[in-house]
Hints:
Blueprint: H1 7-16, H2 19-39, E1 49-50, E2 58-66, H3 72-81, E3 87-90, H4 92-97, H5 99-107, E4 111-114, H6 127-145, E5 151-152, H7 163-169, E6 173-175, H8 189-195, H9 197-206, E7 221-225, H10 237-252, E8 256-258, H11 260-263
Amino acid sequence: MRLPLSPSRVAKYQAMNPLLLAAPVGAAGFAGLTAYGARHPKSQLFGPSIFATDSPRKFALTFDDGPNPAITRKLLDLLDLHNCKATFFVVGKFVRECPGLVKETAARGHTIGNHTETHPNLFFCGPEETRSELLRCSEAISQAIHEEPRLFRPPFGLRSPWLGEIVSRNRMQAVMWTLIPGDWRVKPVDWLTARMQPIADHAKQNLRTGNPPERRAHGDVLCLHDGDYKHLNGDRSRTLAAIEYWLPRWRDLGLEFVTITEAGGSVEA
Length: 269
């Protein structure tokens, strides 16, 4: 029978065999790099993505998970009231159920983007499933507005090593954000309104006369949700109320509302 090594001998053995330590350290480093590439909105590891506008004065409002018959049209009316154009990343299965609502959104001057067919976590989807999710959503959008989407946002903001190539091959560009306040959470409107305060703070800081150029390089992209990816008619009334509070205040700060196609967005990490 082989007796176990004492702790001192284990330490000595490991010191003589650095590969025993290098393997887990290397694996941990790779896992950390993969997590950064998959989740961080500024990461370009898994393909280029827009995460900010090219001017501190330009502010891009974006909405995910629609179309939503319970909220989207009310949101469109509110955006019209403030002469605000936005970008809507829609889910293909909902586009097929509400093509008229998507057509109306585009007709009112907003940009329509691809948010996959069923809203899966693409980090756990293989290349073929990922390709199918993107193509089916683009097909639904094309049938609704007779135009292929040129923008794509990954569900949950999660990407995979093969996603960038698939997005590029389908003539789209990935879009992330500078702020995602968590409006899907069931919280009071005041909570959500406060979580959107950084947009105003950035505007005050970045548009201040005398700031050095590097402090004024980019503007914000805000990620909100007009729908619920799990089902139609999700309650996004809190999002609507928070936007109603902030739209005139953002305008008063000197921000210009733009779609992502007008944003000239940053793809620098």
